[in-house]
Design goal:
The chain contains 16 helices and 11 strands. The protein has 474 residues and is α/β, with parallel strands linked by helices. It has one domain: Thiolase/Chalcone synthase (Peroxisomal Thiolase, Chain A, domain 1, 3-Layer(aba) Sandwich), CATH 3.40.47. The chain is globular. The termini are far apart.
């Protein structure tokens, strides 16, 4: 009789304990980990050096002297070096007449290289992938690129595929957010995230200054990564997602229109960058920081900021009647909550603006500057080249936190925080063979375009013309 009573009372207790354990385990496992990632590095014959860049610019018959001078200034100030990579069509001289197969082949080169290496290194089979998220903003094929990957690697019939387009340079964090949401409701998930951009169909051949600028900034690149919330793989993981915040200002007409894929008045397709882009980016950036700051910073920093802001407002009110200019603007010290800053390589001006806004040192923005110089703006994948630089330099220590910030058309600002979960040695890293050359000094960062094409600045538009047999100087 006593045994029966014990069973009667113990079974509900055991069931309740099991449900509580499942609940706590689910909450503990809801954030995904990055198991490994692979940044794409095209072959050396795809490098856009200064000589070739000059040839591409000068063979565009739609450009006049004003446009040449504008591009000269843009390229020199871009922060991009001579080892970035371009799509194959510009090396074939066909950028003015691309076809859909050019874009497909551009993607295939990346998909076969990076995803294949990632599967081989992790030992995870394509058949183990539960979720596939692909983001390539300016290429929407039928079947989708997600379907293309499933076909190449023969994934399972029940793999959950998401194909994200039109999200711009901030798309990789949107892909991470999709995985995060799946992991919140499912355990033991393996997710493959593929992030890249297609330039072949969007290499602009017209003369609109707001559109030719994109040719000077965007370069070929991509990244594939495997994320998981499987408990048995936590010790092997590299990073754990702590928090992710997305800000979207698409409801504002000025923000929506400042950055978009469009045709010019001659029907030539390209990517438009409006003059109000810096303002839209700033507004989205500030709102994103306001949301994420209370969730990643210690209470002491938030209290300090609140008190300092109050007293500075009080000082400004008192100074209105006097001759003083009043106190300056109070700023939050994000370094109290994070250890590293992984910034989108949108351009030299973007990096400079974030550096000033967050009061960062030159060493803290160094990974973004060196990535911009070596790989250019690779759109949504640029963050992962910056992260790889930090890893290759062995700056990431277990327990440290990394603040990622990205911007994208729409207009959007997305950010997240990762925690380093093990010691990283920079093995199998895209920077491994040449990271010893970095960081570069200011002289080494200088773009040689000016020394070769500086003569364009002295020309008179009324008399300017290039001879038919003109050869770009070495």
């Amino acid at each position: 009789m006593e045994l029966v009573e014990i069973l009667v009372f113990s079974v509900p207790f055991l069931l309740l304990s099991y449900k509580l354990w499942r609940f706590l385990d689910c909450r503990r496992n809801r954030q995904p980990y990055i198991l490994d990632y692979e940044c794409y590095m095209p072959k050396d014959d795809r490098k856009l050096n200064t000589k070739l860049s000059g040839e591409i610019v000068l063979r565009n018959k739609n450009l006049g002297l004003h446009e040449h001078q504008f591009l000269l200034k843009a390229i020199v100030n871009s922060g991009i070096g001579e080892e970035t990579y371009g799509p194959k069509i510009v090396f074939d001289g066909r950028e003015a007449s691309p076809v859909l197969d050019d874009a497909r082949l551009e993607m295939d080169d990346f998909l076969h290289d990076s995803i294949g290496k990632l599967f081989a290194r992790t030992g995870i089979s394509p058949s183990e992938i539960d979720v596939l998220v692909v983001n390539v903003s300016m290429l929407a094929t039928v079947p989708s690129l997600a379907s293309r990957i499933i076909n190449i690697y023969k994934m399972r019939d029940d793999v959950k595929a998401y194909n994200v387009t039109g999200m711009g340079c901030s798309a990789s964090l949107i892909s991470i957010n999709i995985v995060q949401n799946v992991c919140a409701s499912r355990g033991n998930v393996h997710a493959l995230v593929v992030t890249s951009e297609s330039l072949s169909l969007n290499w602009y051949s017209g003369n609109d200054k707001s559109m030719i600028l994109a040719n000077s900034l965007f370069r070929t690149g991509g990244c594939a990564m495997i994320l998981t919330n499987k408990p048995s793989l936590r010790r092997n993981a590299m990073f754990k997602l702590k928090i992710l915040v997305r800000t979207h200002h698409g409801a504002r007409d000025d923000a929506y229109n400042c950055c978009q894929q469009k045709e010019d008045d001659k029907g030539l397709l390209g990517f438009f960058l409006g003059k109000n882009l810096p303002k839209a980016a700033t507004q989205a950036f500030i709102e994103n920081l306001n949301e994420i700051a209370p969730r990643i910073l210690p209470i002491r920093e938030l209290l300090r900021f609140t008190i300092v802001s109050y007293f500075r407002k009080l000082c400004r009110r008192q100074s209105k009647a006097g001759a003083g200019a009043g106190a300056g603007r109070a700023g939050i010290n994000f370094k109290t909550g994070v250890d590293h800053f992984c910034l989108h390589t949108g351009g030299k001006a973007v990096i400079d603006a974030i550096k000033q806004s967050l009061s960062l040192t030159e060493q803290e923005v160094e990974p973004a500057r060196m990535t911009l110089h070596r790989f250019g703006n690779t759109s949504a994948s640029s963050l992962w080249y910056v992260l790889a630089y930090m890893e290759a330099k062995r700056r990431l220590k277990k327990g440290e936190r990394i603040f990622m910030i990205s911007f994208g058309a729409g207009f959007k600002c997305n950010s997240c925080v990762w925690e380093v979960t093990r010691e990283l040695e920079g093995e199998n890293n895209v920077w491994k063979e040449f990271v010893h050359r970095y960081p570069l000094n200011l002289k080494e960062l200088a773009n040689p375009f000016l020394s070769r094409y500086g003569w364009l600045r002295e020309k008179d538009p009324a008399t300017f013309s290039l001879p038919h047999d003109y050869v770009v100087p070495d």
